[in-house]
Each structure stands twice: as structure tokens, then as C-alpha cells.
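hey so u asked for the seq, here:
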Amino acid sequence: MKDVLIFFNRFNGLVLFVSLEIIALYFVVRYNTYQRAAALNSAGVVAGTLFHATNEVRDYARLHHLNDSLSAENARLMAELGRTQQILLEQYTDSLCYDSLNVFDALDEIDPNGSYEYAYISAKIINKTTTHYNNYMTIDKGRRDGIAPKWA
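ran it, C-alpha cells below
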């Protein structure tokens, strides 16, 4: 309380000026239609800008949850794609060997045994390098999640 009194004592001229300006603006806006309309229009613009900025901050805060759900869905879809490719390879291996389009030749060259069982796990990159000759990434998953060291 003592600090407030010291502040008013030191800056009493400034406080008086600002309060008289606020009172004068109030009377101008209150009793003149043009200034009232301009003030309401400006207040609407300011309120709209504040609401827009608030919504952008809220949307940005929700991006973390959206990113997690999209990452999980991406992992699920990649696993489903791998299973579908394996089923197609098992069903059509004989017919694809003589196909002129060579649709699955690239997959056969990678793994001629036809074992395309991968576990797609959603992970978040927590550290990475981009300036070295051999760059690396650190993810937030480990042995408990079924990931071994040096997997690429």
C-alpha cells in the first residue's frame, strides 16, 4: 500500500492527465453519434482480432493431440498396407512372375522369401542432426516398445 501511495505522489500530474483524458474521451464518444459509431466499429475490430488470435492459440495447442492421433493412424495404415502386400504376393506370386509389367519385381528383389512382416510403431523424434555427413535421429521409443538399437 505504501508503494502505491509513493507512486501516486511521484506521478500525480501524469495520473491526473491520463484520468482527465479518459473522462474527455468518454464524453466525446457518449454524446456524439459519429464518434460513437467509430468507437464501436473500432471496438468490434479489436474484439474480432482478439477472438481470432485466441482461436489460433487454442488450435495450436490442440495440434499436439492431432499429431499423436495422425501418427497412430499412419502406423496402423502402414501395417495394414504391409499385410495387404504380403497377401497379394502370396496369392499372385505365380502369375506375377510372368507379368510383363513386373509390378512386384522390386519387392521380390528386396526380400525374395516374401516375408514382409514389419511392425509399424508410432514414434516422436526428440533429437536429430542435419548438418553431419552421417545424420541421426533419436526417438522416444525403445526396447519396451519393441525397437532395437541401430534399426534403420
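Helices lie at 2-10, 12-31, 33-97, 105-110. The beta strands are 125-128, 137-139.
lmk if thats what u needed
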